[in-house]
Design goal:
The protein has 187 residues and is α+β, with helices and mostly antiparallel strands. Helices cover 19% and strands 33% of the residues. It has a 4-stranded antiparallel beta sheet with strand order 11-12-7-13, with helices on one face. A 3-stranded antiparallel beta sheet has the order 1-6-5. A 3-stranded antiparallel beta sheet has the order 2-3-4. A hairpin with a 4-residue loop joins strand 11 and strand 12.
């Protein structure tokens, strides 16, 4: 039995789940999410506790069991508290900055032109120029992570000076620059 798959999901206050066969809709104070699960998986709601069960012990069913429970838990967490990712503009990046909030953000990343980055539906940006961070928030964990990855891909941190966009807490592997003339054989 999958350890993750057999763990129950307790619904927080204000979260409502509608199960229609393989189609599941989760509504909460932050929004609404819908997903269609594999037919090998069944979800039961018993007085505010969701359980995920599989049809048989075949390899495909076992693989879908833990995955379906994790996706359902992410839906419940998303509509109740939401998800966010923080992107940092490295401090030693002179001239790198972001402007705007809400549905679109303009990034100045050392290119000859500013980069307009519109937010997909369900995503909001919060820019803090003092700490040089951009917070990406939404109810869908998958969409928040994808948006953060697309933004970071515009100018990933380079290994010599570390300039670029990075996730909060990400370690940049730094390289040594040119050694230069050290006196050995230099004239």
């Amino acid at each position: 039995m999958s350890r993750i798959g057999k763990a129950p999901i307790t619904l927080p206050k204000g979260v409502d789940v509608k199960i229609d066969g393989a189609h599941i809709t989760v509504k909460g104070p932050k929004g609404e999410l819908k997903r269609t699960f594999n037919e090998l998986i069944s979800v039961k709601n018993d007085k505010g506790v969701l359980t995920v069960e599989r049809a048989n012990d075949e390899r495909q069913s076992r693989a879908m069991h833990g995955l379906s429970r994790a996706l359902l838990n992410n839906m419940v967490t998303g509509v109740s508290t939401g998800f966010n990712k923080v992107i940092e503009i490295t401090a030693d990046s002179v001239g790198y900055r972001a402007e705007g909030n809400g549905k679109a953000i303009t990034l100045f990343l050392g290119f000859s032109h500013p980069v307009e980055f519109p937010a997909p539906d369900g995503i909001l940006f919060a820019n803090d120029p003092k700490t040089r961070t951009i917070t990406i928030s939404g109810v869908d964990k998958e969409l928040v992570g994808e948006t953060a990855a697309r933004m970071r891909k515009l100018r990933p941190p380079e290994p010599y000076k570390g300039k670029g966009l990075k996730y909060s807490g990400e370690k940049i592997r730094r390289k040594a620059g040119k050694a230069g003339k050290t006196g050995k054989g230099a004239k």
